[in-house]
Amino acid sequence: MTQSDIRLCAITDETGPHLDDFLTFATDEGLDCVEVRQIDGLNPLSLSPAQLADAARRIRAAGLPVAGLATPLFKWPPPGQSSAALGDQFGFDRAGRSDTQLFEDAIRVADAFGTRHLRIFSYLTYDGFVLDDLRRGYAGLLELAERHDKVLRLENEPVCNIARIGQLADLLDAFDTPRLEGIPDMANAYHDGERPAAADIRRVMRQSSHIHIKDFSLARHRCVPLGEGDVPTAEYLSEMLAAAPDKPLTLSIETHVPEARLAATRQSLAELRRIVSALPH
Question: Which pTM was predicted?
Fold first, then answer.
């Protein structure tokens, strides 16, 4: 794996609420692609057909491919369970839709943005969770992914059942399907108290090509601009790249710094570029 195999990316709402401001940032910074999460303050699953078409047009006009759609799918409790922590829902409104309707809408939105990849979660955390709970829940979405040639990407998320890299590796091993990949997030793992083991990183990277990049301060218990926290990003990134030597990887900035979002994301991207520049050419 060399620098030429890496694509730099950022999530559309990590500079502020307005898509046009993000696109200006992305083109000025020379990003290779973008990851769609919110559009002008709205969740993509809540956009009208006209709004969706307009957003897709603006992104295409900027010359930026969409690396993936960051959906809220499965960031909810399963039937019969409840959860005190909802996490950030990024404007998601179920609006009376069933899970199946949401799955179909997510596929439609991904098609509009020209991407095969959809980020998903693992249900909001609850006592007694086992991997088979997700097997039942994911069945319909995996069927749709197969029918529409989509790839689901599961992110480890602190408020969800799969919060750690080791758990993500276990799930990917258990499902063992090309329709389900990982989005490893080391800062999320740190947030949950894990220090990811090299063996788990190697397992996850067998089925991952998209990585979320951010930093986490243990003392402040919050995300901070890349390089200001406790996550040894350069060390982990070297391990991840070494574990996936034969495929291109996308590194997507997900700053999660609510104040001064543009400045924090610009700072994080500069730090990521510094880290990447130290990798072998």
Answer: 0.96
Residue 124 has phi, psi (to 5 degrees) of -60, 140
Please, are residues 262 and 11 in contact by the beta-carbon 8 Å criterion? no
117's enclosing H/E stretch is strand 117-120
List pLDDT tens digits, range 226-252: 999 999 999 999 999 999 988 999 999
Here the tokens at position 7 are 């694509």
Using alpha carbons, list the distances in angstroms from residue 132 to 109, 139, 146, 187, 208.
Answer: 28, 11, 20, 26, 21
Q: How far is CA 126 from the centre of its chain?
A: 22
List the domains of the chain with CATH numbers: 3-277 (3.20.20.150)
Q: Token match 């750690």: residue?
A: 164
d(CA 132, CA 256): 31
Q: CA 160, CA 142: separation in Å to the nearest integer?
A: 19
